[in-house]
Design brief:
The chain is an alpha/beta fold. The chain has helices at residues 19-34, 58-77, 95-100, 117-120, 175-179, 187-199, 225-233, 253-261, 278-284, 290-303, 322-335, 352-356, 363-386, and strands at residues 10-15, 38-39, 48-53, 82-87, 106-107, 157-164, 183-184, 204-209, 240-244, 268-270, 308-315, 339-344, 392-400, 408-411, 417-424, 438-446, 451-457. Helix 7 (225-233) packs parallel to helix 8. The structure holds iron/sulfur cluster. The site of iron/sulfur cluster has 9 residues, from helix 5.
């Protein structure tokens, strides 16, 4: 029997934030699994908790601080419990953070999970030593540890970071200071990564970058995202490829051509506009005018008629007047996005907007504007989705709607979540697992956020 001191820690990873954080957490899981650690089923069972944090909004930080408070209380009763923190809340200089969050034993860069080694190889029957020397947070290109590729589960949709960091200067954004300069992963490394994911069961990959359409500019030979899509399209067994987040400034004809010509590349683009007023865009440091953005979306839709487009917008940015806000509503009405993610502005430490502009839109006004965007988009999203009722959509089955449910869920090529029943004329519907199959679903109902439908098999099964 394994003695307690030789046992490797059971771990929990708590992840907040974007897909990039989820991909980083998978990388950390892979590292821990390779060290012989196993996931804990609950906090009570855990020897190591890792918080992968988000700093994009104050509310995300508050969420993590709530979790840290819970962990501080728990550590009083379980002195063997180690807490590690990573992600965008972790700054290069951790001195301040150690003072602020004394319950954290280790701060580390999410791209360097090797830093966890010291917490993995410790005797678990003893309290965590009081002072771990925190690994310096190094954000240069040399900081990238060798890629960790092992798939944890049999999920069919996987996230694959292809470019880290951000070189833009949006005045409200904390990401560049936390995630560093742009660094692209070499094409060969990404191809090998995706091949391995496919061999483990993945059928769809989403390529990730803060500005994914900047991919490759820093690599020798300057491969671009279109080239990467071409290379990944050759991988047999991979059915679908998506990418996000795109910046309007860097979308080019080669990328649009690749989306049109490569059947595995889905007709979906996430293209944050952030605002509908030129003066606000200028203050935000977004390097385009509203008219340029609209021209680009019109052009994309002309070249890719079935392409769905989603966006991000911020309401209540410094100095936003009623009139400027009305320009945002008009833009949303004209462009008619498939999905709009809306956030109320919250100043982030050491960003240009926090340093130079007053956060002068009252909280109640921000809330009301947020609600008005949501209400408008609810109508537009529903109207767009209702046009799909009666059509057949190719869906990649991601799994059951809920555990034990007889219904299934998946997404259209245009990224619309779809719930559906399957009538299988050849098999036992209850026992068949369709996860990872492509099916054609007849859409029977639509709301702003989801489609409902039914599939009849086997006639319509594609894979
Ligand atoms: S593009 Fe702008 S908003 Fe996006 S991560 Fe870079 S600085 Fe932040």
């Amino acid at each position: 029997m394994t003695t307690p001191s030789l046992r490797k820690p059971r771990y929990l990873i708590w992840t907040v934030g974007c897909q990039m954080n989820k991909a980083d957490s998978e990388r950390i899981e892979t590292f821990l699994d390779r060290q012989g650690c196993v996931p804990a089923r609950a906090l009570e069972e855990a020897d190591l908790v890792i918080l992968n944090t988000c700093a994009v909004r104050r509310s995300a930080e508050e969420h993590t601080e709530g979790q840290l408070g819970q962990l501080a209380g728990f550590k009083k009763r379980a002195s063997h419990l180690a807490v590690a923190m990573t992600g965008c809340m972790v700054m290069n200089d951790t001195t301040q953070m150690q003072r602020r969050y004394p319950m954290v034993d280790l701060f580390f860069n999410s791209l360097q999970p090797e830093a966890l080694q010291q917490l993995v190889n410790r005797p678990l029957d003893q309290p965590v030593p009081m002072s771990f020397d925190p690994t310096p947070i190094e954000m240069g290109p040399e900081a990238l540890s060798p890629a960790l590729h092992q798939l944890r589960s049999h999920e069919v949709m996987r996230y694959v970071p292809v470019i880290y960091g951000c070189d833009e200067h949006c005045t409200y954004c904390i990401v560049p200071s936390r995630r560093g300069r742009e660094r692209s992963r070499p094409v060969g490394e990404i191809v090998a990564h995706v091949e391995e994911l496919v061999s483990e069961g993945a059928r769809e990959v989403t390529l990730l970058g803060q500005i994914v359409d900047r991919y490759g500019h820093d690599l020798s030979g300057r491969p671009d995202l279109a080239y990467l899509l071409e290379r990944l399209s050759l991988i047999s067994g991979l059915e679908r490829i998506r990418f996000l987040t795109s910046h309007p400034r860097y979308i080019d004809e080669r990328l649009i051509d690749a989306m049109r010509d490569l059947p595995k590349v889905c007709e979906y683009m996430h293209l944050p506009v952030q605002h509908g007023d030129d003066a606000v865009l200028r203050r935000m440091g977004r390097p385009y005018k509203v008219a340029d953005y609209e021209y680009l979306v019109d052009h994309i839709r002309a070249r890719l008629p079935n392409c769905s487009v989603s966006t991000d917008v911020i309401v209540g940015f410094c100095g936003e007047t009623d009139e400027q806000f009305s320009h945002l509503l008009s833009l949303l009405d004209r462009v008619r996005f498939d999905v709009v993610h809306v956030a109320a502005y919250s100043p982030r430490p050491d960003t240009p907007s926090q340093r130079h502009f007053a956060d002068d839109v009252p909280g109640a006004v921000k809330k009301e504007r947020l609600w008005r965007v949501e209400a408008l988009q609810e109508r537009i999203g529903r109207e767009i989705n209702e046009t799909l009722v009666g059509t057949q959509q190719e869906i990649l089955v991601e799994g059951r709607e809920r555990e034990g449910s007889s219904r299934w869920k998946g997404r259209t090529r245009t990224n619309k979540i779809t719930f559906f029943s399957i009538q299988d004329t050849t098999g036992d519907n209850e026992r068949m697992d369709y996860t990872g199959h492509l099916v054609y679903v007849q859409v029977v109902q639509a709301s702003a956020r989801a489609l409902q439908g039914r599939a009849i098999l086997p006639a319509l099964v594609e894979a």
